Amino acid sequence: MAQVQDHRDSTMKPDANEKDPTFPVMAMDILSNVLSRADNPGDLGTYLTEEIRDLTGARCVLLLQCLNTEAVTAHRVVSVNPLRMREWAESQAENRLYECVHRVPAKQLWRGEEPAEIAGLLRGEGFELSMVFPLNAGEFRVGAMLVLGLPDEEHITSMLSLLDNLFAIVALVLRNAFIYEKQEQVIREREDDLRRITLFQRTILDNAPYGIVSTTPEGIVTSFNPAVERMLGYTADEMVGKQTPACWHDPEEVTRHALRLSEELGETITPGFEVFAARARRNLLEENEWTFICKDGRRIPVNLSITALRDEEGHITGFVGMGYDLTERKRAEEALRRSEERHRAILQTAMDGFWLVDAQGRLVEVNETYRRMSGYSAQELLTMRIPDLEAAEMAGQTAARIQKIMVQGEDRFESRHCRKDGGCFDVEISVQYRPAEDGSMVVFLRDITERKRAEEEIRKLNDELEQRVWERTALLQRKTEELEQANERLKEIDYLKSRFIASMSHELRTPLNAIIGFSSILLNEWVGSVNAEQKQNLTSILSSGRHLLNMITDVLDVAHIESGTIAPCIKEFDLYDLLAEAESEAATAIREKGVELRSELLRHRMRTDRGRLLQCVRNILSNAAKFTDKGSVTLAARIVSSFEATPGEEMVEIAVTDTGIGIGEEDRSRIFEPFQRIVTPKRAIVTGTGLGLFLTRKIATEILKGDVLVSSECGKGSRFSLRIPARLP
Ligand code: ADP
Prior knowledge:
Layout: E1 2-3, H1 23-37, H2 41-56, E2 60-66, E3 75-81, H3 86-89, H4 94-103, E4 108-111, H5 116-124, E5 129-137, E6 140-148, H6 153-158, H7 160-207, E7 211-215, E8 221-224, H8 226-232, H9 236-239, H10 251-265, H11 274-281, E9 286-293, E10 299-310, E11 316-325, H12 327-349, E12 353-357, E13 363-366, H13 368-374, H14 378-381, H15 386-389, H16 397-408, E14 412-418, E15 424-432, E16 441-447, H17 449-523, H18 532-563, E17 570-574, H19 575-592, E18 596-600, E19 605-609, H20 610-626, E20 632-640, E21 651-658, H21 665-668, H22 692-703, E22 707-713, E23 717-725
Parallel strand pairs: 18-20
Antiparallel strand pairs: 1-6, 2-3, 2-6, 4-5, 5-6, 7-8, 7-11, 9-10, 10-11, 12-13, 12-16, 14-15, 15-16, 17-19, 20-21, 21-23, 22-23
Helix pairs in contact: 1-2, 1-7, 17-18, 18-22, 19-20, 20-22
Bound molecules: adenosine-5'-diphosphate.
């Protein structure tokens, strides 16, 4: 409350009623009247201002409360009479009005001489005559009473003493009332705060995922939150005020902890609540893993931390324990441990060697496989760096390649490492680089010594093989060249032979013609008669000569064809005429033997070598005649289609079928070779050179561009057919 100096206002007239002994009694009466009606400080003001107004006849009475503590000025309007003036009182004018009132040291009567800053304000309301009574309780200013718009000065002066007495008591009453009100206010605020804090704590306790238990300093449970209810299966009702933490702790574990703690703190801690409280009591961190025993007997691992609760003086008022269930974490840790163990076991027994290398290239972990490869022990390897393990010729390449992999992401390469015993082995290195925070890398090493050796072996074998192939190829080439040369020589010899035969045959024919001619003249007795014996001899000379001539003609033909000196003589003719000619030539000989000659001739325009075709037909027809003694010989011709023939190219087949002695399968291929005759008793008497079919096939293939085929059955007959294109280009 604002402190004021009490000094009398010199402008006030001396109070005439000052000494009237009835005034204190009247003042008490008024006040007791007011107090009997009022229930609270607000009402007190209302009734008081009403009494003062009645008493003074003022137009308005204001009761102000001085709110400011120290030097700061602040007032509030407690009550106004009449009530309708309240708005005015609380209006914008109030600050100036109250400030003035605050500065007034003792009661003052304003007869139009009020301070300039409120003069307009009061006059404006018609308050010409006003009084201000500061309300002081001891040295504190409680407030002020403003009596505005007094009817006349005399009237107020007559009751100044009464008012002085009254306001002296009012100040005391108000002071107490205000203090009371203020205290109530503070209590209300404290209660609100407490409620808020309690709610806050409750919310935390109810929703905390941790189990929270508080106890008295002796260990009796004072709170047991829902999380710990869930954890242990006990309810707060079962615990609070009734149990201590011993209820859910394992006594053996508590005893063990007690021993350990006693040793640690250097004083005996008896197994009991003190085991939990001892460290917290000494302001030491108390956090441990405990086994909690649930209501249903389950045992769960719990991390428990304990704190002492202290009051403002530092005395312990209790303890709080916070615990969380470690079951899940333990399970996860166990799973992780097992999985790590498994991985480690896999790595240890893996086919490949394994390194864990730190960022400086030092080996941090090595598996059994690599130890076996290198011959070093794990202890030795763990003091080594990558370059220490390489073969000398690698000269630090492994580490460089691993670095490169980290930059370029290349995944594997080959290297050579040395063993402890000085030997070497080849490895294929692959790196699984995970940019781990510490820069460590996982490196796998596969022993490829065997593979390398096999590759080398294969390479050598390949080289050898290549060398051999090369040698063989060279040999083959040489042989081919030799063969080609031999072939050339043979061709030359063959050509010379054919030339020789051709010219020799010609030379032979001339004397033969003479032999045949003259023996024929003699036999016909054109130059005189000959006897029977001479006739027989001449007949022999003639037939031998003819045979020889035939043979020479055939040999000559063969030689001509083979030497390539024969030019086909192609012309147009009718096939019918050619066949008729051949048929008539053979007819006599066939019919003389009593064999039937049949013909199925075909009229067809041909364009080929007529002479050579006729020669072929004559040959096969004369053979049929020679080797058929009964039955028939058939000469037939027809147009055939041929797979080899190009469209528009007609093929003609001229076939001679007989019912003669036939040819055995074993002989069928031989009959087309030169000078091959089948010698059997049946054929003995038949004359021939053995060149006929050879020549026929040569002509058919080389001049007529066709072929000659045979089908035959021993004792039943044969069929020789010529297949040739009807028209040669
Ligand atoms: P040759 O001058 O002996 O007839 P070929 O070359 O014409 O010579 O015939 C070879 C042989 O084929 C003959 O000696 C004969 O034994 C056999 N031959 C040929 N044609 C017939 C046929 N139509 N029937 C049975 N045998 C045949």
